Amino acid sequence: MSKSPSPEPQDCGPSSSSKPRESYGITAADDLDDTVGTVARFIEQLQANMSSPSEKELITVQMLGIARARKEARAIIGSHGQAMPLFISILRSGTPIAKLNVAAILTVLCKDEDLRLKVLLGGCIPPLLSLLESESTETRKAAAEAIFEVSSGGLSDDHVGMKIFVTEGVVPTLWEQLSPTNKQDKVVEGFVTGALRNLCGEKDGYWRAALEAGGVDIIVDLLSSDNAAAQSNAASLLARLMLAFSDSIPKVIDSGVVKVLLHLVGKNNDTSVRASAADALEALSLRSSAAKKAIVDANGVHILIGAVVAPSKECMQGEHAQALQGHATHALANICRGMSDLILYLGELSRSSCLAAAVADIVGALAYALMVFEQTSGLDEEPFDVAQVEDVLVMLLKPRDNKLVQDRVLEAMASLYGNTHLSRWLNHAEAKRVLIGLITMAAADVHEHLILYLTSLCCDKVGVWEAIGNREGIQLLISLLGLSSEQHQEYAVQLLAILTNQADDCKWAITAAGGIPPLVQLLETGSQKAREDAAHILWNLCCHSEDICACVESAGAVPAFLWLLRIGGPKGQEASAKALTKLV
C-alpha cells in the first residue's frame, strides 16, 4: 500500500519534532546501557501511581521519540516485560493524547517483524479497534495506522495471528468502518483498506464476511473515490475477491467497474493504483468470459497495451511499474487465451496499424511478452510459429523508419533472440542477438549497414559470413574493436568469434583487415568477456594457417596469452592454453 503521511503525536509541551535529541533523555553519544536505562526509567515512571495524566503524555511522546530515533531502543521497549501491558492500559484508559502517542509507538515497533508479533500477542487489537470509533480524527488515524502495521505480515504462515484477528472480528469491523454511513478521513480510509488488503487473501475465509458486509459495493465506491491509497487497496481487494468468489463477478461487471478499472490503469493515476487496477483486470479476465468481452468492448485491449509500455514511455521504476507491466500482460493473455496467442495477435496487430505511435506501443508490448514468455510444458514442441513473429518484426525494421518504431522493433527482436524458450527455434539466433546489440549502440554511419546485415541474415537464408557482406562486414567489425565502449567491443568481438566458428574464409579476411593487433590488445585491456572471445578467435586463426599463426606471434600474442593464462577466467585460460600450444 502507498502509505499516507502518519499522524504526528501530540504533546502538551513543545512539539516533538522541534526538540533536540537530548529532550528524549539521550544524546548521539549514549551507548546501549544508557538506552536501556532510559527506557527502564520511562516504563518505571509510567508504572508509578503518582504520574499525572499530563506526565504520562510527556513520557509517551518521549518514548515515541527514542523509538523512532534508535533501532536498539525499539528492541529494548519490545523486550521489556511491562511495556505492552502498560501500553494496553493507556490505550484503554489514558488521555486522548497519551492514547495517540502509544498507538504511534506501536506503529513504529511493528516495522520490525519480530516486534510486530510481540505487539500482536500483547493484546493491542481490541483497544485499537475501539480507538477507531473515536470522535478524534487524529486518534482514528493513529489507530488505523497501527492496525495496518500490526497486520502487515499477512496471515499465510501465522496461525496464531490468524486466530487473534478472527477472534476479535477485525475484518468485519474494518468493513464497517468503510460503510457509506461512516464518512472517514482519507488517511483513515487508506490505512483501513490497507489492513484489509493485508488480511484478505484469495484463499482466506474472510470474504464471506466481506460479502455479508456489502464488500462489493464498498469496493466499487472506493475505486471511484479521490483517495489514491484507498483506490489501490480496493482494486487489490477486488482482484482477490474475484479469485475467491467468482460468483460475485456478474454483480461486479453490472456495477460498471470494468470501465472504472480501465480508467485507473491510465496515465494520470498513481503508479500503485494503476498496478492494482491491472491486477483486478487480470483476475476478472481470468475468471469470466463476460469480463473479457466487457474489457474488449470498452477499448480495454489498447488501454492494456498502453499499460504494458507505460514504464518505458513514462520512465517509471520500482515494484509498482513491474507489477503494472506483469498484470496488464497477463490480462491481455487471458483475453487472447494464452501468451502464445497474445504474441501472435500483437504481431498481426502491429502489421495492420497505420499510426506510428500505435505501432510503437503494440511492438513495445510484444517485446515485453517475448521477454517474459516461458514454456512450462511440451518443451519438445514449438509453442507457436516463432519464425512468423520474426518475419513480422523484420518487415517492420526499416533502416530509415520512425526512430521510436525502430527502437521498439529492435527491443522486440532482442527479446525474441534472448529468450531461450523461443530462440532455439530460429536459425543464427545468437548472431542475430549480437547484431541487435551492435545496432542499438552504433553511430549513424554504421547503423544502416548493420540493419541490412540483420535483415539479410533473417530473410536470405544465408550464413552470417554472407549476410555481413563477407570482407566488407569484417572490416566494419574490426573498426569497432577500438571503440571505448566496453559493451560495444564485447558485441563486435563476439560476432567475430561466431564468424570464425562458422566460416573459414573470414579468418584470412580478419588477418588482411588488420584485425590481429587489436585482438591481441583486447587480451590485455578488454573486459573478461572480450578477452575470452578474443582468445578464442586468435586460437581459431592459429588453427587455420601456419602463416596466420606467425602473424599472431609477431603481434606479441605470446606474452598476452601467458598473462591471460594467469589472471583469466576458465574460458579465457582454456583458449589461451590451446593457442599457446600452436604458438610455442
UniProtKB/TrEMBL annotation:
GO terms for cellular component: cellulose synthase complex. GO terms for biological process: anisotropic cell growth; regulation of cellulose biosynthetic process. Residues 1-24 are annotated as: Disordered. It comes from the Eukaryota. InterPro entries: ARM-like (IPR011989), ARM-type_fold (IPR016024), Armadillo (IPR000225), CSI1/2/3 (IPR044297). The keyword Protease does not apply. This is Armadillo repeat-containing domain-containing protein. It comes from Gossypium barbadense (Sea Island cotton). The lineage of its organism: Eukaryota, Viridiplantae, Streptophyta, Embryophyta, Tracheophyta.
